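for the recovery benchmark. tokens below, seq after
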């Protein structure tokens, strides 16, 4: 299989993820405010993020938007996962195994999003988001790395001119479609649907471009 076909496969994977999977970040405030707030509220209260009123009716500790604490915890979980994933990829992604790690990210990232969308409690959702952060780095960072090392210097600018819109533009358009879909289906169903479609495409892509998982 030619180098161009592998590059097309890598760029298409990035574009599909950006459009269908990455918009979960757009919907995290909805999860924090509604879907997961019932189980997040005790944790937020324990951290001092809820409004408590004394016997005299005066606020002892106030927070105008306690849901923002839940949202911050969710973003923090993604960040912890991303740092962990980057360290693991840097430590074990060499020695001819980057294609394998990319494959794990391609399949694991949407699977982790499915777990997050189905999580019944806030702690389980945080655990799923940590996994999401790990696997996103394996998918996105390794795809970028493999694209960079496979292109010749003479055409690197043209390739990156295609790669960058494939991620940045598609992610913005994905956020738009996720917002529209969430108004119709709800946030959990929207995230789950996007993740399921991404997973289906990745399964097809790895059959269509088998050389990707063997990339050094």
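predicted aa per position
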């Amino acid at each position: 299989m030619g180098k161009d076909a592998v590059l097309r496969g890598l760029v298409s994977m990035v574009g599909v993820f950006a459009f269908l999977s990455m918009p979960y970040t757009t919907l995290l405030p909805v999860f924090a405010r509604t879907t997961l707030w019932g189980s997040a509220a005790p944790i937020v209260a324990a951290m001092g993020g809820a409004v408590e009123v004394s016997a005299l009716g005066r606020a002892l500790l106030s927070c105008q938007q306690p849901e923002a604490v839940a949202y911050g915890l969710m973003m923090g979980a993604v960040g912890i996962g991303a740092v962990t994933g980057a360290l693991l990829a840097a430590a074990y992604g060499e020695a001819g195994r980057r294609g394998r790690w990319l494959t794990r990210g391609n399949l694991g990232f949407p699977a982790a999003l499915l777990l997050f969308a189905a999580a019944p409690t806030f702690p389980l959702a945080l655990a799923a988001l940590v996994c999401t952060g790990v696997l996103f780095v394996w998918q996105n960072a390794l795809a970028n790395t493999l694209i960079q090392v496979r292109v010749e210097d003479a055409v690197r600018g043209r390739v990156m001119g295609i790669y960058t819109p494939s991620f940045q533009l598609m992610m913005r358009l994905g956020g738009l479609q996720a917002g529209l879909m969430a108004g119709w289906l709800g946030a959990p169903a929207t995230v789950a649907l996007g993740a399921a479609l991404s997973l289906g495409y990745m399964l097809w892509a790895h059959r269509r471009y088998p050389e990707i998982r063997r990339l050094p």
